[in-house]
Amino acid sequence: MAHDPTDPAWGTLLELGMPSAGPLHLRLARALRAAVIGGRIVPGSALPPSRSLAADLGCSRWVVTEAYSQLIAEGYFEARSGSATRVCAGAVPGPRLSRAVREEPWKPEFDLVPGMPDLRAFPRKRWADAVREATGTLPSAELGYPEPAGHHRLRQRLAAYLVRGRGASLDAGHLIVCGGTLDGVLRMCRALRVRGHTHIAVEDPGWSRLRAAVTAAGLVPVPVPVDDDGLRVDLLRALPEVRSVIVAPAHQFPTGVVLTPPRRAELIAWAGEVDGLVMEDDYDSEFRYDRHPVGTLQGMAPERVALMGSISKTLSPALRIGWVAAPPRWIEALSAADTVGTPPPVIDQRAFAGFLDAGSYDRHLRASRLRYRRRRDHLLQEIASSLPGHQVSGAAAGFHLLLHLADRAAGDVVRGAARRDVRLADLDEYRMAASSRGATLVLGYGNLADSAVTGAVRRLAEAIHEAPPRADGSGMSRTTA
Asked: pTM to 2 decimals?
């Protein structure tokens, strides 16, 4: 049917069938009836005037009026004097959805699962201005398919930012713009597989979705433990099948430890010995509170390290903009057809380039650091007050921390908190291998409203006090912040 912007019924596709299926007015009635029953024309929708639909179908008006009359008689349509013919309300029972479809996902009052930035603080006006500017100034030629490596202007601005703000060693030619850190990992893993790599070492505990990306690329993730100094490079050396590793040296997730200078040097030396590659996840590097900022590993060895980052934790994961700064010998492989994913929209890339140019990104990061630090301090005060004797670690950066449980099982606490409308994460959820360390919770506070901190900790304390003591009676694990 013809398009009328005021009513979706005018744009409905009608399958009239072949002439051998019967007279046209009966075929039209069948098509309209099927559209109503199938939900493509919803109750209350106005049907096109018979003259307009007849013109669209290239038939006489009589064909349409006969079809409408038949469906009015059957109770599907209703006609009122001086008004359009409409689909009757209740003509067809509503769809019976399964229980799984009907149920809304759980939206807890207090969500302490890590990994989400403060979405309330997203700079809507400044981002909208950047999108408006990009849309208004983008040359027509750039409205086609995006460049595989990303928009040239964004690559230039990103390279300048990473050199200035993260101590990286690169230029725009080393950069690939992608759909986020996971997309960057997936692309890099595909390129590694083409070059003969079969296994990739990952930090344990670590981000489970990174391991899933490795597996999706056809490679085998191999867990390597993390201690207070970061990745255990000595154990990495004992894995002859591994020539590449994914590591978060600035702020390891979820433990929060920083890869120490000796370990950094040892990791780079290992990569040279095996002719391998270090994939550096620059996770939470922008948010440091009690320590000086930590520069990138890539800046120390750009020929051995691929730097990966995104704006998912600094602005919003909804934007899906990330990057890979790879050694020159990997750039061609990353741009090959079998490794390229779906790049971010060109207009969003140009908008982010303008956002960087105007200094809006730097201002947002400064404001976010202050906000997260105040919230972290408030959270620590509430934990000290409500949960005395419980140690906290990993709080020097980012927007999550670890809470070590003295004599309770983390699973019991997570379930008890859920009954109080609080969502928590158990550190063991991020492990590949079993650990003898004590029970620990990972508390994310990035998207927790300042006014909610006190209530969240109070309910957390209730869940901990309610949980039965662990049968093994083990004490809490002690790690450094």
From this structure: 0.81
